């Protein structure tokens, strides 16, 4: 990995994809209630009459309390990841997800369901932070987009599995098994992850931050398959280790408490960028469309098992796109794909709003068919260009000593915006109908140009090199002096060297 040339091993891929069972956990847990809302037996068990204000309130509360728990989870996970390590955090979080899922599946009244849903949201929030954080720290730069992109891919696989689970349970004759089985299956992915977690290595960057150099060297040696141009492979890995240590030494000179961090211009800019990207991604309306899709299909005049079938196809298509997007992001670039995706989503939501306004609730098959088409075109843009890519970008912005806090705050923005949008959705659709879509058209249209012109491109750079965009001192154990401009290009005319240990350090005068 010098990190500009690191090559992933088979073991590296296995580690990244196995920990993505946590991504599957988040995706399934997040989406399953939208599926359960399509099962009449759920509402019958809790005596919720179809179309009643109490049903609408419970739907909003069930989703809202999940995202409220997620916000708290995002705040807690930074302390957990830095104190106990990335690997131990994964183990603790998965146990929390298992217990909270069991509470939901065994619920005998609404209060019990909501308690389980809240703690499940906390666990899901934490797992949604720790997985891309861990993946970014064990991935080589030239393939980091592809590897961290597996997080977004497995999230949407979770959405798809939830959708097909709901469709299968729709035909179950036992009414209680219909919805209880859906909720109980939330246990499976985190159970598999916790059972196999002892095999995962600890993040080498966290190990070096704890001064556990020998352990970090062993992990780096297994993750890196680079054939160096000069010297032995062992020397190359040691050089990589020295580079990370030197950067950690530089970063340790800066404060890490939240108030001091926000006073630091470099760190504050990173935090705002990560938060902006996640908030903007949710402002496309993706989770409103996903979680209330069955209700949206009902509004287009579709009923019975057809909405559940369409939902299954929709999420399966989205999962494929979340696989395809990360395969090219290391060549195309993060900002370019995010910008194209945001504008495409806004255009498709505009078309969807027009179809709902004109044909919603009517028997016009052509108009309703176009309504379904635009939902699929929407997820085509979002799945290929936004979903996985937003996690990739946010996981890259922060130095090791602040990565847990930074990714946690960024994903907190995801949960906060989703809480606002989904909590308002049932009432908004009932009161203003298609006009609610205007939010998801205007916000991306206005905000995307700011991202395009002001946010740096991070493709192909090591996590340590990215700090150059923000005026940080950059340790480099190979090139005498390196300066990285906002387009990701290297130059050798700016910056000055500082000696830290065995590595040269670049200080950007700008």
From TrEMBL:
Q: Where does it primarily localize?
A: membrane
Q: Name one GO molecular function term.
A: carbohydrate:proton symporter activity
Bilayer topology: Multi-pass membrane protein
Task: Keyword check for Transmembrane, yes or no.
Answer: yes
Q: Where is this region: Disordered?
A: 485-510
Localization annotation: Membrane
Spell out the protein name for this chain. Answer: Major facilitator superfamily (MFS) profile domain-containing protein
């Amino acid at each position: 990995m010098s990190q500009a040339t690191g090559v992933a091993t088979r073991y590296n891929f296995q580690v990244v994809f196995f920990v993505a069972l946590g991504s599957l956990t988040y995706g399934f847990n997040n989406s399953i209630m939208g599926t359960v809302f399509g099962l009449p037996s759920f509402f019958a068990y809790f005596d919720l009459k179809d179309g009643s204000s109490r049903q609408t309130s419970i739907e909003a509360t069930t989703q809202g309390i999940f995202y409220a728990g997620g916000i708290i989870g995002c705040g807690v996970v930074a302390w957990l990841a830095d104190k106990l390590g990335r690997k131990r955090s994964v183990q603790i979080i998965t146990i929390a997800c298992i217990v909270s899922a069991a509470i939901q599946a065994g619920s005998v009244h609404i209060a019990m369901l909501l308690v389980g849903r809240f703690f499940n949201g906390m666990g899901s929030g934490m797992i949604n932070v720790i997985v891309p954080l861990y993946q970014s720290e064990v991935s080589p730069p030239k393939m980091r987009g592809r590897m961290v992109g597996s997080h977004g891919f497995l999230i949407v696989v979770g959405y798809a599995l939830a959708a097909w689970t709901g469709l299968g349970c729709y035909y179950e004759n036992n009414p209680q098994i219909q919805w209880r089985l859906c909720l109980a299956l939330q246990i499976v992915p985190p159970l598999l992850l916790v059972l196999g977690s002892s095999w995962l290595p600890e993040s080498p960057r966290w190990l070096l931050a704890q001064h556990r150099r020998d352990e970090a060297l062993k992990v780096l040696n297994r993750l890196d398959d680079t054939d160096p141009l000069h010297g032995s492979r062992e020397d190359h890995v040691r050089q990589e280790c020295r580079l990370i240590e030197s950067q950690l030494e530089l970063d340790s000179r800066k404060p890490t408490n939240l108030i001091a961090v926000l006073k630091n211009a470099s760190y504050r800019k990173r935090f705002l960028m990560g938060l902006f990207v996640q908030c903007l991604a949710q402002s496309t309306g993706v989770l409103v469309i996903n979680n209330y899709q069955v209700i949206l299909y009902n509004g287009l005049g579709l009923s019975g098992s057809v909405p559940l079938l369409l939902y299954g196809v929709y999420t399966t298509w989205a999962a494929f796109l979340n696989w395809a997007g990360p395969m090219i992001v290391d060549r195309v670039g993060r900002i370019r794909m995010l910008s194209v995706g945001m504008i495409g989503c806004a255009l498709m939501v505009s078309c969807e709003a027009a179809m709902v306004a004109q044909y919603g609730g009517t028997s016009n098959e052509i108009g309703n068919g176009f309504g379904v088409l635009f939902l699929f075109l929407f997820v085509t843009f979002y799945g290929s260009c936004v979903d996985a890519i937003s996690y990739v970008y946010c996981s890259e912005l922060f130095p090791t000593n602040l990565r847990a806090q930074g990714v946690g705050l960024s994903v907190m923005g995801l949960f906060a915006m989703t809480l606002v949008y989904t909590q308002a959705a049932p009432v908004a659709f009932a009161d203003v109908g298609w006009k609610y879509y205007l939010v998801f058209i205007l916000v991306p249209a206005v905000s995307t140009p700011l991202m395009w012109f002001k946010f740096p491109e991070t493709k192909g750079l090591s996590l340590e090199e990215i700090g150059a965009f923000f005026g940080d001192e950059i340790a480099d154990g190979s090139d005498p002096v390196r300066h990285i401009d906002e387009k990701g290009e290297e130059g050798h005319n700016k910056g000055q060297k500082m000696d830290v240990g065995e590595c040269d350090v670049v200080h950007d005068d700008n």
